[in-house]
Amino acid sequence: MTAIIPAAGSGCRLAADEAGGGPPKALRRLGSEPLIRHAIRSVEHAVDRVVVVTRADLVETVTAELSDVRVPVVVVEGGANRQESVRRGLAAVESTADLVLVHDAARPLVPPAVTDRVVAALRAGAEAVVPVVPVADSLRHVDEQGSSAAVDRTSMRAVQTPQGFTVGILRRAHEVAGAEADTATDDASLVERLGADVMLVDGHPAGFKITRLLDLQAAELIVAADRRQR
Ligand code: CTP
Ligand code: MG
Questions:
Q1: CB-based contact 84:7 (threshold 8 Å)
Q2: 72, 148, 164, 169: which could form a disulfide with 129 (CB 3.0–4.6 Å)?
Q3: What residues does ligand 1 touch, defined as CB less than 6 Å away?
Q4: Region 39-59: what's the mean pLDDT?
Q5: Which one-letter DSSP state was computed for residue 226?
Q6: Model pLDDT for residues 144-170, shown as the tens digit of each residue
Q7: Closest approach atom of ligand 1 to CA 6
Q8: How many CA atoms lie within 13 A of 5 on its CB side?
Q9: What Å distances lie between residue 182 and 17, 49, 185, CA to CA?
Q10: Helix/strand/coil for 26
């Protein structure tokens, strides 16, 4: 089992919330460690190897930040969007791997138990596994003309990571998608285009993605509260 961690984004929305911006999102500190180090902690117990995808100018820095990860780490250069970065990460997955987890560097607080649920479903034979949580807000669907209609939120789920796949199906999904112009925001949606079933397991509220400054501030409070409890 190999984990691919897409971490090659720039964090534009986070930077936009702050005067002067800051370091790239994956290297932002949460508590004493960068987001990328937290993200790896959610999956490292379950994998034999980690492939981190980062910006070309950050390969050395990211490698240095990850010196204490207890499984081998390979750091590779990412692409212009998340899909391209995952594809490049996948190219660095050894041919001996049969299962892969894809986990956003921007989700630092996913409990390891979520990873365990994804892995258990893969080991039980699922080809594609996605952790999901209920949607808290009421939702409206808006069309191109701007008209809107209520959506039944009880039938909706928000998708998190790590997402789990057989290596074969994820490679095929990225091969097919590679020729298409549009990009997907996650890997399960690419696999689904091949007609594969996507199995859902319970995610966790702590698996939220750090997108805006408010998310980082919330994560800081959670980490500080955890530390006080210990
Ligand atoms: N990602 C990536 N390569 C890209 C773009 C995104 O590996 N070219 C990664 C990010 O580093 C992140 C994950 O995909 O771990 C989810 O993306 P997102 O939250 O959108 O992060 P950013 O793209 O960095 O943020 P923004 O869209 O605000 O710029
Ligand atoms: Mg992005």
A1: no
A2: 164
A3: 6-13, 25-26, 53, 78-82, 85, 104-106, 209, 211
A4: 97
A5: H
A6: 999 999 999 999 999 999 999 999 999
A7: 7
A8: 29
A9: 27, 30, 10
A10: helix
